[in-house]
């Protein structure tokens, strides 16, 4: 998978949804572009415009062909869009009798990450991007409190459905995944596999050249030749740098250290052609405006990082938040959320093992106590058995009869 730059909109691949029979029971379903609730329609006539769109309506029209397949490969490159359309497409793919493989050919963000989880097998490359977030709703007009509460309930239901899909794919609990989603977490390459959203990293060994993320003349981000509008997302990282670093880790072998005899000069020695190097003081003196601009950008980036961490810090361990902000290896909000997820999994696994040990020890202690107590030698009949009580009652009755007889005799004698 290569991520190409483009100088104009015409050079980018158009959004499309297509089904192709590649033979042998194998079908390919291509989903490029935004996920929409319905096909594009003419504003005036209401008729379909014929413009390609990734919609559940279009997928449903292709169901008859897809049900014939023994294997379906979904080629996905989308920044998402309508969550409920994404959930519907996910459910359609999960219901297919065929084995489904999803290949993230660029990006699977927002509702498209839900579609990606439909794969029995999800494959990513070092340049693939996946993003999960809580989602947002754009409103225009006037609404009552009841309207807003109903919208909030609808959104919460959508988030719960989305978390259920992520939980089923990753094997993580909803509670573990919620802070990851609330943080708007961006993952690249191997990170997607590590988080459980993908099953395999396809090491293509640099085939097709280095992956790039670029911006077109219209300000949109071009990923795998498809233009995407990322402006609606809140915490978009430097994707170009992260993709480039991910690809380098996989495709480039460490540079060999030259032998001493091959070193004509120290590797950092300045030459007249390249110009003399400057230390920080000299750079500040000769280019004060440039240094000030760099420092201002660094301060703003740090403030943004801390603000993003504060937004998702609720419910996370305080020591993890401190480590993310001020530790030896600072993290951004996405990395902190992922670290919290991994820590929760480790604690859950450790707690499960501790519970098993405690249960086994409890049973062993109970058995030992029973053996040492000697209870098996105790006569189950207390104090001579039930006959004693009956004898006591009989003696008491006799005494009462005797007393009555004596009282009668006394009364009779007194009457004479």
Walkthrough of the structure:
- This protein is an alpha/beta fold and 416 residues long.
- It has helices spanning 56-61, 63-66, 83-95, 111-116, 145-170, 174-182, 190-194, 239-251, 280-286, 288-312, 318-326, 333-373, 387-415, and strands at 16-23, 26-32, 35-36, 54-55, 71-78, 99-109, 121-124, 129-132, 185-188, 200-201, 214-215, 221-223, 226-228.
- Strands 1, 2, 5, 6, 7, 8, 9 and 10 form an 8-stranded mixed sheet that branches. Strands 11-12-13 form a 3-stranded antiparallel sheet, with no helix packed on it. The chain has a two-stranded parallel ribbon with strand order 3-4.
- Strand 12 (221-223) and strand 13 form a beta hairpin.
- The longest helix has 41 residues, at 333-373.
- Residues 1-11, 205-210 and 255-275 have low confidence and may be disordered.
